TrEMBL record:
Domain of life: Bacteria
Annotated stretches, region: Disordered: 227-248
Keyword Nucleus carried by entry: no
Topological relation to the membrane, as annotated: Multi-pass membrane protein
Polysaccharide chain length determinant N-terminal domain location: 3-94
Protein name, as recorded: Capsular polysaccharide biosynthesis protein
Domain Tyrosine-protein kinase G-rich: from-to ranges: 139-194
UniProt keyword annotations, A-Z: Cell membrane, Membrane, Transmembrane, Transmembrane helix
Major place of residence: membrane
PANTHER family assigned: FERRIC ENTEROBACTIN TRANSPORT PROTEIN FEPE (PTHR32309:SF13), TYROSINE-PROTEIN KINASE (PTHR32309)
Family as reported in the entry's similarity comment: Belongs to the CpsC/CapA family.
Gene (name only): capA
Stretches that traverse the bilayer: 20-40, 174-195
Amino acid sequence: MEETISLRELMETIRKRLNLIVLITMAAVLFSGIVSYFVITPIYQSSTQLLVNQAKSDQPMVNPGEIQTNLQLINTYNVIIKSPAILDQVSEDLDLGMTVSQLNEKITVQSEKDSQVVNITVQDPDPNKAAEIANQIATVFQKEIVDIMNVDNVSILAKAEVGETPSPVKPRPLLIIAIAFIVGLMAGIGIAFLLEYLDNTVKTEQDVEKLLELPVLGAIATFEEQDMQKMSRTERSPRLRSETLGSK
């Protein structure tokens, strides 16, 4: 019984503060939408792929030992790609005016497990610049790795390209708005319950019983002015009818 009453009180609190909850939720959604579409700078992403293959030889068969050696070198290549030896040259060739650390923040280098393919991903507010940087990193690395490690086993598998209508990878406005909706709804409900908890005024007979620990014997009903006028017109109507019949 107590659980039923508690649940009813909770629902009553939500119903009573529903306007506040809706207002806070809509404000959170509106604010997140404005920030997502008009404040946060969209970031575009472009990727290129490198293939670490066996060195060219006259042997018709693929040597498994060379493939395993290339796989072991990939982790080293991932570090070299983001090293000053490569990024300084890229920044100079493209006249980016960036330091190695600044350019490093835009680059992600990944390789799948037991795969000879290395993915170079670049993020930038300009989609064309992101593709240009990714392709230049691949070109410079392919050229410089010959002198750095005295090997020639890297080839460009796929170049970065910009689509006709590139879409940013972040921010994701719909996701941000959805999160803001949930957070705003929870915040609105929390504030509603907090206001209800802080409100210690006496409003109902049940509040009087809880406060005084005495049973309520009676209550004085309250009427709005419109209700009083309706009751007054209702009372006058039978009198007028009776007077009219009496005069007849």
